[in-house]
Amino acid sequence: MPDRKTSAKISLGICIASSAALLALAVTFPKFYEWFYFLSRSLSEESGGIIKTVTVAFYSSAPFAAAALYMLIRLLLNIIRDEVFVVINVTYLRLISYCCFGVVLVNAVCAFFYAPLFITVLVFGIVGTLLRVVKNVMQSAVALREENDLTI
After folding, report:
1. In the chain, helix, strand, coil percent, each to 5?
2. How confident is the model at residue 52 (pLDDT cuts 50, 70, 90)?
3. Helix, strand or coil for residue 142?
4. Can you tell me the distance from the alpha carbon of 86 to that of 75, in angstroms, rounded to the nearest whole number?
5. Count of domains observed in the chain
6. Hey, what's the torsion of the CAs at 54, 110, 117, 32, to 10 degrees?
7. pLDDT band per the 50, 70, 90 thresholds, residue 43
8. Angstrom distance (rounded) from CA 46 to CA 116
9. Which of 17, 22, 50, 68 would bridge 99 by S-S if both were Cys, CB 3.0 to 4.6 A apart?
10. Full-model pTM
């Protein structure tokens, strides 16, 4: 079983790979999605509207995803440096949850034009809420650590 630092390094690698994938998709998304959509269905006039809606949802969500990945990388670097229960990590978790809720808002609007995007709304809503809970736990741990540091 990997130790805490090894696990954080693996997570960091995944975040860096995800950032590279996001960048690659930012450059190629419309053609990539058109190709992907073509594999599963025949293109019709209706599919052009779907491709446009999903493309708008992607490009509107991409800045939130990029910001969340950046903050997650910073958080993991802090964990690797043994800076776990510090205020900046609470801030990173808070901002990452806001990014999730930003994706929820963007996709909720786009889902009225392409209903399967409601799945994205649900998933990111759950992840954002989960991150808020983890942020609250981390915030309590930071407060306890600071109180403990004052009593020693």
Report:
1. 90, 0, 10
2. confident
3. helix
4. 10
5. 1
6. 10
7. low
8. 15
9. 68
10. 0.89
